[in-house]
């Protein structure tokens, strides 16, 4: 078996994704957790690039690595955290979790062991962003526009609720 550059890149990106996920679960500092989550998201975007899905990779970087991570960071930083209790996890629970992980890994192995993919056409990797754009703005233009209207309404609602809370705080301070 020869090791191609694509295979080595996949293994490297997959390793970074798994390590980022494990660090996300093991770290206690919130900022460090978010940074490990960003490493996971960016490595998954790299795997999308290896699969010739450049549009999905760009969306992964923009939406998840950028927007969702920043929203999570602001949400965590702007909320109060007074709970300092640490729950102790018993040995039996760790054992059953380990058995569950092994069972899941075995099920995945059995599921992909003899998996055969049919021959795919060569047009799959050609101009996939253009194909997505044409389909989105021709066949799915109504759901696309409805989604943008729903997002706009949600944004306006969030602004109104934030303004209302700010006005309530000013009234409480003046009394």
UniProtKB/TrEMBL annotation:
Name of the featured protein: NADH-quinone oxidoreductase subunit J
Recorded catalytic activity of this chain's protein: a quinone + NADH + 5 H(+)(in) = a quinol + NAD(+) + 4 H(+)(out)
A Pfam family annotated for this UniProt entry: Oxidored_q3
Organism: Bacillus aquiflavi
Tagged with keyword Transcription: no
Chain's role: NDH-1 shuttles electrons from NADH, via FMN and iron-sulfur (Fe-S) centers, to quinones in the respiratory chain. Couples the redox reaction to proton translocation (for every two electrons transferred, four hydrogen ions are translocated across the cytoplasmic membrane), and thus conserves the redox energy in a proton gradient.
Principal location: membrane
Highest taxon, organism lineage: Bacteria
